[in-house]
Write a structure and sequence with these properties.
The protein is an alpha/beta fold and 475 residues long. It has helices spanning 2-13, 18-27, 55-63, 76-85, 114-120, 185-200, 223-228, 253-277, 314-317, 344-351, 368-371, 431-445; strands spanning 31-37, 65-67, 70-71, 125-131, 150-154, 165-166, 169-170, 173-174, 177-178, 206-211, 284-290, 321-324, 333-335, 339-340, 382-383, 388-390, 395-397, 412-414. The protein has a single domain, classed as 3-Layer(aba) Sandwich (Alkaline Phosphatase, subunit A). Helix 6 (185-200) runs parallel beside helix 8. The longest helix has 25 residues, at 253-277. The termini are far apart. Residues 1-26 and 404-408 have low confidence and may be disordered.
Length: 475
């Protein structure tokens, strides 16, 4: 008997023994990495049949779970806000517009952000890297006052990729300080992510929210990336609508955009390779998603889907999304669960074993049971804003949608599980379904926030940006 027990002890004590390593890994809280990209369309990734090479994103899709019915808001600030709060952005006045540089709006400090909840669960390091876009005029809106322990990136959207300026002033920061780092913003954000992973690994678990500004305009790519897509220096660069030119424009928008997306993919690959090399990938949740569909007139593709950014057509709000967590669930399959940006917070908290929830009720749901294949589907209605609701089978447009380009008729119903391109309005064929969904939509459309962000151009005239976008200057 002693000999038998001794043999077991020897086996279990061997360094790296598979059983003990797996058991140890399974008891640890997972590291969490959210990779949010900007204006990447459904048809811009290889695994959706896109023409731009995205081998690293495609590999992630094979390893993880394709979230085939993942929805966002139609523009970026609302998506970011909903992702970090688990609540529809309508509840705090941020659905129809982003937060422009001249706005004093910020997401209410009454809203609890994801990193605040992770802090209480033992996540010591919680970094926000890249594009913030949730408020910049007061320190109370700064990432370091919303639960993050580190911030590296820009407060506004649409910065110059090389100078890192917005409205003529440097918008690149390291915590509260200006950063004068030189380089292409996509590269710099990935560099910082890799640096943070290496630094934080000894104090796992950690949380990284990596919000790339690519491939959002202005369309700018590095010379080496442009050359891979046929750039010819002897030919002119694409016209910029009469505006002052930006560094990094290729011969065409399509060429420049492809170079940007390919560079983005390479940098995502660098981050994933770092996790693998450090043997952190098995117990790291990686969520990849776009914030909305591709911007009109900037070379992005919605693929088979109808519409683009600013609209509630599928191409504006249904985005490429993948989640991978080898220790938590099996990968290599495609989920048809209706899910989206508001579900990120409750699902991440459940995966991390975090019991605490905000006092205000969440709109998002925990979809972990579906990801773990313990439940086939969770039936739910998902509000897409402005009179639009979608569920597993149907999608209703109850009224005219502002900013949708060519006007469309109201009272639209699509059997969306069979008609993802939204070609056939079946409201006349299924009047009872339409009426039922209209009644379910009404409470969402009735949401009113005490304060709403003003229209994009309100306050623009005469605006002068603060020196290096110093937040303290607005106090």
């Amino acid at each position: 008997m002693k000999k038998y027990l001794s043999s077991i002890f020897i086996i279990l004590s061997v360094p790296g023994f598979f059983l003990t390593e797996s058991m140890a890994q399974s008891t640890k809280k997972p590291n969490i990495i959210i990779i949010l990209v900007d204006d990447l369309g459904w048809g811009d990734v290889g695994y959706h049949g896109g023409n731009i090479p995205t081998p690293n994103i495609d590999r992630l899709a094979k390893q993880g779970i394709e979230l085939n019915r993942f929805y966002t808001a139609a523009v970026c600030s609302p998506t970011r806000a909903g992702l970090l709060t688990g609540r529809y952005p309508d509840r705090f006045g941020l659905r129809k517009s982003v937060i422009p540089p001249w706005s004093d709006f910020g997401v209410s400090t009454d809203e609890v952000f994801l990193p605040e909840l992770l802090k209480a669960a033992g996540y010591k390091n919680r970094a926000m890297l890249g594009k913030w876009h949730l408020g910049h005029v007061a320190l109370k809106y700064h990432p370091l006052n919303r639960g993050f322990t580190h911030f590296y990136g820009h407060l506004n959207g649409a910065i110059d990729y090389f100078t890192h300026k917005r409205e003529g002033e440097l918008d690149w920061h390291n915590d509260y300080n200006s950063s004068y780092d030189v380089g292409y913003s996509t590269d710099l954000i990935a560099d910082e992510a890799i640096k943070n992973i290496k630094s934080y690994q000894a104090q796992s678990p950690f949380f990284l929210y990596i919000a790339f500004n690519a491939p959002h305009g202005p369309l700018q790519a590095k010379a080496a990336d442009l050359k891979r897509f046929g750039y010819d220096a002897s030919k002119p660069v694409f016209a910029n609508g009469g505006k002052e030119g930006y560094e990094g424009r290729g011969n065409t928008k399509q060429q420049t955009y492809a170079a940007m997306v390919n560079n983005l993919d390479e940098n995502i690959g660098r981050i994933l390779a770092t996790l693998s090399n450090l043997k952190l990938d098995e117990n790291t949740i990686v969520l990849f998603q776009s914030d909305n569909g591709p911007a009109p007139n900037e070379a992005g593709s919605s693929g088979i889907l109808r519409g683009k950014k600013f609209t509630q057509w599928e191409g504006g709000v249904r985005v490429p999304a993948i989640i991978r967590w080898p220790n938590g669930f099996k990968g290599g399959w495609k989920s048809e669960q209706v899910t989206g940006f508001i579900d990120v917070l409750p699902t991440i908290l459940a995966a991390a074993g975090v019991k605490q929830r905000p006092e205000k009720p969440l709109d998002g749901i925990d979809v972990l049971p579906v990801l773990q294949q313990k439940q086939s589907v969770i039936n739910r209605n998902f509000f897409l804003g402005d009179g639009v609701l979608v569920n597993g089978e149907w999608k209703i447009f109850e009224k005219l949608e502002p900013n949708a380009g060519p006007k469309r008729a109201s009272d639209l119903l699509y059997q969306i599980d069979k008609d993802s391109s939204e070609k056939n309005n079946v409201s006349a064929k299924y009047p009872d379904v339409f009426q039922d969904l209209k009644e379910k939509l009404a409470p969402f459309d009735a949401i009113k926030a005490p304060l709403e962000v003003a229209g994009f151009d309100v306050g623009k005239k005469g605006f002068v940006a603060p020196k290096e976008w110093k937040v303290a200057g607005f106090r």
